[in-house]
Design brief:
By secondary structure, the chain is an alpha+beta fold. The chain has a single domain, classed as Aminopeptidase, CATH 3.40.630.30. It is built from five helices and seven strands. Strands 1-2-3-4-5-7-6 form a seven-stranded mixed sheet, sandwiched between helices. β4, α4 and β5 form a beta-alpha-beta unit. α1 crosses α3. The longest helix has 14 residues. The protein starts with 12 loop residues before the first strand and ends with a strand.
């Protein structure tokens, strides 16, 4: 197992609710705009969505954020659930984004760990995709038990450039 930094995040974590929709929307759109190759969705698509769509995301997923003492969100990550009967044992970690000023603080690790803790007892496995060139994210996910199980070549196209995505999964089933 790769060794992760031992720095512990000083940003308190909390699950976002419908009342956080505007702040969630702002942070989500910032991530999509600043790192278009890191997300399957695009700024152009989500910027057009009404606030009610963001409220729906908050209600249908577990979305956790780290915030400053003043309450400003500086990092988010989400855990989504499959609705189909044969896939309800799996969840999807998505939407991970940490503002530049909070990077290196341990917040990303705290978000992943928190979501995996929430998932235990609810589902058996968590899946995610990550751009194959994002070495820092891959190290983080590997540290928390995610293993590569596939590679989708040219999974994303941003402008005229293609990006490969790794498919990763983490078993959280208790034996």
């Amino acid at each position: 197992m790769d060794q992760m930094p031992t720095k512990i995040s000083s940003f308190p974590l909390r699950r976002l609710s419908a009342s956080d929709a505007e702040a969630f929307r702002e942070l989500r759109l910032e991530g999509l705009k600043n790192h278009p190759n890191a997300f399957g969705s695009s700024w152009e698509e989500e910027a057009e969505k009404p606030l009610a769509w963001f409220v729906e995301q908050l209600e249908q997923n577990i979305i956790v954020a780290g915030s400053t003492e003043s309450g400003q969100l500086v990092g988010i990550a989400a855990l989504g659930f499959h609705r189909a009967l044969k896939q309800r044992h799996k969840g999807v970690l998505w939407g991970m984004y940490v503002r530049p000023r909070a990077r290196g603080s341990g917040l990303a690790a705290a978000l992943v760990e928190h979501l995996l803790d929430k998932a235990r007892g609810m589902i058996e496995e968590v899946h995610l995709t990550v751009v194959a060139s994002n070495e820092a994210a891959i190290r983080l996910y590997t540290y928390y038990g995610f293993r590569k199980y596939g590679l989708e070549r040219r999974a994303l196209k941003v402008g005229e450039r293609y990006y490969d995505e790794l498919w990763m999964a983490c078993s959280i089933k208790r034996h």
